[in-house]
Structures are given as C-alpha cells and as structure tokens.
Design a protein that fits this description.
By secondary structure, the chain is of the alpha+beta class. Helix content is 37%, strand content 18%. It contains 14 helices and 14 strands. The strands form four sheets. Strands 7, 8, 9, 10, 11 and 12 form a six-stranded mixed sheet that branches. Strands 3-2-1-4 form a four-stranded antiparallel sheet. Strands 5-6 form a two-stranded antiparallel sheet. β8 and β9 form a beta hairpin. α9 packs across α12 and α12 crosses α14.
C-alpha cells in the first residue's frame, strides 16, 4: 500500500510492502524518495492538483486468493470500498461545495445520506445537546419515510428491504466521520416497527477516551453518562417510527380532522379502536334506515370493532408489502361525490348544518385523503 500526499507544493510518500516486511522481519515503513514517487501509478494525476492524497494498492495476492475470476473479484472489492466510503464520509462529500472529494480509479464517490433527508415524508426531531464535562454530545433523531413513499432508487439508498431493519439505531459521528451505525447499544431491540428510526449522535474527539474508540476509529461504545441520555429519548424516537406505520401519512388524529376511526388509551397500557359514531356518513345511514334497524346496526359496528384483526394488520404493516389503499382510480371522484351527496341529503331539513358540513368537507374521512378531489366536489356542490 502506497500513500502520497501533496500539500504546500511538496509531495511526500510512504509504502508498506508485505514482502519487504517479511524480509526485514520488522513492520518497517519505507519512505519514498522523489524518484520513487514519480514511479507510483497516477502520481502525475496528483501532481496536477494543488493538494490531495493518493492511495495505491498493488499485488493484491491475498485479497484475490482462490478467486476463479480475479477481475470480477477485484471489482466487487472496489464496489464494497465505494459503498463504505460513500456512507462513512457522506457529511464531507455532501453539498454544492463539499469539503472532500474521493475518487476510485477516477470515478467520483457520491455521498449516501443514511437519514434520507432529501426524500419527502421523513421527520427530523430538534437536536438535543448532552453535556459531558466540558464537551457537548449532540443527538438528532430522524424518522425515515414509510417504504410506500420511497422510489426504487431511494429504497436502494436506505439499504434495501433488509437494510431498513438491519440499519436502524444510532449513527455515531466523530468530527463528522461516521464511526459506528446500525446499533441501539442494547438500549432497545431491533424490531420491524422501529426500523425507520435512525439517530445521529455527534461526539467531539475530546471524548475519545470515554467512547472506547479503537485505533481504526471504526467502533465506539458510549460511556454511561451518554447512555443515560440516549435511554431517555430512545423510547420517544421508537414511538415516532411506529406511528409512521400505524398512521402512515394520515392526519386522522389531528383535532381538525373528522376520522372514521378513533383510538382510545385504556388502563395498564391497553388501547382500543372504535368507529367514530359521530361521523356524518354513519349519521346519514341512520337517517335512511328505520328505527327498528338501529340496534342491529350498532351490533354490527361493535362486531367490526371487537374482531379487528390486530395481529394480521401489525404483521402486514411491519412488512415491506404495500397495502392496497383507496388510490386515485377513475371512479374515485364519482364515489366521493355520491358519498358527499348522501351525507348532505340526511340534513335536508337543517340548512345551517348542511352548509357547515360542506364547508368542512375536506377535513372529513375519506375526503381528507384526497384534498384535490374534495375541493372540486365542494365547489361543485356549493
């Protein structure tokens, strides 16, 4: 392995050669003379730059041992190195004016943001500083968008379907360089419902001794004061990730929305879901059926609530399969228009309530899921 570095107009080089180490029986580092530097492949490319570093590997006998196709095996190693550096140094490579450029065989490495901040539908919580003596550790949580909102290329950046689950957890940076990632440090378990949670932890180099950093800066274990701080926020972060699956993109729990379902917290951590008895469509149905059918309708609603397939829904939402939702089909506008007219018809004798219902149409399930269509229906009916 040969390393050349140019700065302030001067180029210096050094080389480790395993054969030379074996002959000398010493882990000797060979400093290169100017003539040796000129013989290093791509040294002319380095001389054309104002400053930079060139790393050259040659005679890769051990890395390619036993390979039937050494060229293909070498390319696989190059791809692995590219993927590794695009993630580990992504904060140096990002932006219009990156502070660092890395190229392998002339090909520029592109940064990979593990938090997918450029993708729509994600969430970033406010940074939380954690004081350790005179140093500050900064914690910033990110919740990735739901898988259904990711394109194929964005899904690949997230690590694929398996990578989503495997790469959840803390991402520890030392001076912007990613040290370790994809672990909860035993403060939480890796679960399907938390696989969208990734937490950025920035540590200064003044805390190296507390983080048990190894010599390669490739692993870090948080000290007890930091673990206490992380433990306080990990449950809150995990809850955010679960909500993305549970209420994915649905504002039905916001106070201004009239949802079809309501969620209630019970005792001892239990919860239940109930159909919203105040929903205008259900009220319209009650107006259309005789009073004698009211109790039967209520029993049917109760049956739906008590037989809700929680286990199956949990498994489906935790998987990477997409649910078949009420998407924008050709007959969507007609179906929503018919629904709105039925709701209004139940209020024929109450013009004030009809006007109020029409005014709030875009805030009622299922119209709130399709605001553009709801707006047109509202204008048409007005």
């Amino acid at each position: 392995m040969t390393v050349l570095t140019k700065k302030n107009g001067a180029t210096h080089g050094a080389e480790w050669n395993l054969e030379a180490v074996e002959r000398a029986e010493d882990w000797a580092l060979h400093e290169l003379e100017p003539a040796d530097i000129d013989e290093v492949p791509h040294s002319k490319d380095l001389s054309a730059l104002a400053e930079g570093t060139l790393v050259v590997w040659r005679e890769l006998d051990r890395a390619l041992a036993g390979e039937s196709d050494p060229v293909r095996a070498l390319q696989d190693h190059i791809d692995e190195a590219r993927d590794h550096m695009s993630l580990v140094f992504h904060r140096f490579l990002e932006g219009k004016s990156p502070s660092l450029e890395i190229r392998i065989n002339g090909d520029t490495i592109r940064p990979v943001d593990p938090f997918l901040r450029s993708c729509k539908g994600g969430q970033t919580l406010p940074p939380e500083p954690l004081q350790i003596g005179d140093a500050t550790v900064t914690i910033e949580a990110h919740i990735l968008p739901h898988i259904s909102k990711l394109s194929a290329s964005e899904m690949a950046l997230a690590g694929g379907e398996e990578g989503l689950r495997r790469n959840q957890g803390f991402y520890v940076y030392r001076n912007r360089r990613l040290i370790t990632w994809g672990t909860w440090f035993r403060l939480a378990r890796q679960e399907e419902m938390t696989k969208l949670a990734r937490v950025q932890v920035d540590i200064p180099n003044s805390l190296d001794h507390l983080w048990s950093l190894d010599i390669k800066k490739a692993f870090a274990h948080p000290p007890e004061p930091v673990r206490k701080g992380l433990r306080q926020i990990v449950s809150r972060i995990a809850d955010r990730s679960k909500r993305v699956y549970t209420f994915r993109g649905h504002r039905g729990w916001a106070p201004e929305i009239v949802p079809a379902w309501k969620r209630f917290e019970g005792r001892e951590g239990k919860f239940r879901y109930e159909i919203n008895r105040d929903h205008q469509l259900l009220q319209a149905l009650r107006e259309e059926i005789p009073d004698s059918a009211g109790p039967t309708l209520e029993r049917f609603i109760q049956m739906l609530e008590t037989t809700f397939p929680f286990d199956s829904a949990y498994a489906d939402m935790a998987s990477d399969r997409k649910p078949e939702l009420d998407e924008a089909t050709d007959d969507l506008a007609d179906r929503l228009l018919d629904t709105a007219m039925r709701m209004l018809a139940s209020l024929d004798a109450q013009p004030a309530l009809r006007a109020r219902l029409l005014d709030q149409l875009e805030q009622i399930d299922p119209f709130c899921k399709h605001p553009a269509v709801a707006k047109k229906i509202k204008e048409q009916l007005q």
